[in-house]
Write a structure and sequence with these properties.
The chain has helices at residues 17-36, 43-52, 55-62, 65-94, 101-117, 119-132, 144-168, 172-200, 205-216, 218-227, 237-256, 259-262. With 285 residues, it is mainly α. It folds into 2 domains: 1-37; 56-262, Growth Hormone, Chain: A (Up-down Bundle).
């Protein structure tokens, strides 16, 4: 949008103007949120949230099975999205000897479009499955949101392996198409994860959302170190190495999403920290 020939009313500094106008949009959105945002619908809901908003309650929430697995899953979805956004332009340029920086950036943008615009799809389908009580994975029977999230995580891992194969083919368009699918997988999982947060933690969704979102950014720092590691045979192999690091997260999700664990994932955890006030059982309601 802000190319070298772009000239605006306040700035004539091409891409640097993007920071200013992004800030303007953010301020406008803040105003819209202030005008149209609503508080909790009931006094009971507000009171339960208030009682759990303590350091002791936060520590308890941060170590519950549900929080840990959703945070880890966000590392391999949102964290992956952050890492790919900053890496793909370099990858398409250097991995395929594409000297045209604008073309390489355009290829990279297809990933960002998929990862950004398709995110509501992940949450919407999670809601539909929960509302219609549809089982799509029998070994997580009755845990409808968990089934959808798990499939999204598996899709990301598979597509990352395919990304390596597409790169090794030497055809840049193969990598662009698969990159789009990786972005779609990130969007799918991200939407599904944040559909689970309020369902699993109805009285502390703000605390959990903060933990999940904060830890999720770790992937944006770690994964680029893998993509560009000097010990790799080539730039294409890094995606498969990254996929291998995601497998333990998928296995953790498979354990936590089992019905007998998922039902108490907001109360049972990795520590014996005192439970938060007003904690209730996890559900798909």
């Amino acid at each position: 949008m802000f190319g070298t020939d772009w000239s605006g009313p306040l700035f004539q500094t091409n891409w640097r103007a993007a920071f200013f106008y992004t800030g303007i949009v953010s301020i406008v959105l803040a105003g819209v949120y202030f005008v149209f945002g609503e508080a909790a619908k009931s006094e009971q809901k507000r009171q339960a949230t208030k009682e759990s908003a303590t350091l002791r309650g936060w520590l308890h929430t941060a170590t519950r099975y549900g929080t840990v697995v959703l945070a880890a899953a966000y590392v391999m979805s949102f964290g992956l999205e952050l890492s790919m956004n900053g890496w793909l332009a370099t990858y398409y340029r250097e991995g395929f000897n594409t000297q045209n920086l604008v073309l390489a950036s355009t290829f990279a943008a297809t990933f960002s479009v998929a990862a950004g615009l398709l995110r509501p799809f992940g949450g919407y389908i999670s809601d539909v499955l929960a509302r219609t009580e549809t089982n799509i994975l029998p070994f997580f029977e009755g845990r409808y949101r968990e089934q959808w999230t798990f499939l999204g995580l598996c899709f990301i891992v598979v597509m990352m392996f395919v990304m390596t194969l597409a790169g090794l083919s030497g055809v840049v368009m193969n990598a662009v198409v698969v990159g789009f699918l990786v972005g779609a997988g990130c969007a799918w999982a991200e939407g599904a994860i944040f559909a689970q947060v309020p369902a699993m933690f109805p009285n502390s969704s703000g605390a959990v959302a903060g933990i999940v979102g904060g830890i999720g950014t770790v992937g944006g720092i770690v994964y680029p170190l893998i993509y560009s590691a000097p010990w790799l045979a080539n730039l294409h192999v890094g995606y498969s190495v990254t996929a291998v690091t995601m497998i333990p997260i998928v296995l953790l999700a498979a354990w936590v999403f089992r019905p007998e664990i998922a039902g108490v994932a907001n109360t049972a955890g990795f520590t014996d920290a005192a439970p938060e006030t007003g904690s209730i059982a996890s559900s798909d309601d």
